[in-house]
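Morning - pyridoxal-5'-phosphate inputs below, output right after.
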Amino acid sequence: MPKTQETVLEIDLKALQHNFEFLKSKINEKTKFLAVVKAFAYGNDANEIANYLQDLGVDYFAVAYTSEGIALRNAGITTPILVLHPLPVSFKSIIEYCLEPSLYNVKVLNEFLAVASEENQTNYPVHLKFNTGLNRLGFWENDLDYIHSKLKNTSVIRIKSMFSHMAASEDLNESEFTLNQIYAFKKIIEHFETDFGYKPMLHMCNTSGILNYPEAHFDMVRSGIGLYGFGNSDKEDKNFKPIASLKSVISQIHQIEQGESVGYNRAFKSNAPQKTATIPIGHADGISRIYGNGKGYVIIDNKKAPLIGNVCMDMIMVNVTGIDCREGDEVIIFDANHTANDLAHNADTISYELITAISQRVKRIVKN
Ligand SMILES: *Cc1c(COP(=O)(O)O)cnc(C)c1O
């Protein structure tokens, strides 16, 4: 790789392939694989990631919102796309772009039925989401009679899948809760086939569900974080390769005296002469203020340089006292060895939040 000269997010497609193959090795050959590419593929680059995964043969994609699905269609994605959280205002676009909505309550069911029949659709593929304990989105078991009454006399839509979402699949202390979720889901799907005369696909597992609850793989699994290289535990992390490296450069180095302060509101005050480095990445790039004042660090010359003072919009300052470095040198915020997971945990947050926050201002470089 040429030397880093500005803030970049490098995306390693070979690592993505490794993660995909590892996850595939955990599921039955017949089980379908849905790749979750919402939020710019967890802050990476949805078009690049989805095109690569489409070539690798994923069966489905999921995004959160309709606009994300439209962007994928415009980028040439022809694989089915499940929209997890569509809002009625976008139902016409859903149909126009052949996206498949998750219907999660009576209101959206009825509104989607109305739009689909206005658009003269037959057997339009939809997915029914059921709440089994996350209490976020989803029908309840006692909505089944209503769903049945609405659907038995219409051919406008067809239930392509029924699904649910686990609340704590990565937390083995909560396995009893998760097993109850699986049981609740099984109860919900029990009578569908006899009532409707056909069998939708069933799915429930996210990445940690795939790893921890093989008995709940059903017909399809949905993975996001695993594809991007995180297994949500030290043990599982070893099997994955983080696909993204966030790098930058040192713009300026200062020698400051004892008693001087650094940054806005003078949040850092030095108690000794120190060497500081200013780096062109800030909260507008996704390095949130929680990483300031020593909670976060960057890697320079293979050593940790802690953030000092408050994170600015476009810059951070780090303490490089004792680190051999010069203006123009490379800085690693996270990569495969110094992981986003470790950095996030240091600031009491999680990999998901750090990686999805990397803003569109940061240049993406895709490596094959
Ligand atoms: C985001 C999301 C996923 C992916 O979860 P990971 O933990 O990233 O694998 C799966 N299913 C639903 C419904 C989601 O919202």
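Note: Residues 31-228 form a domain with the TIM Barrel fold (CATH 3.20.20.10).

O.
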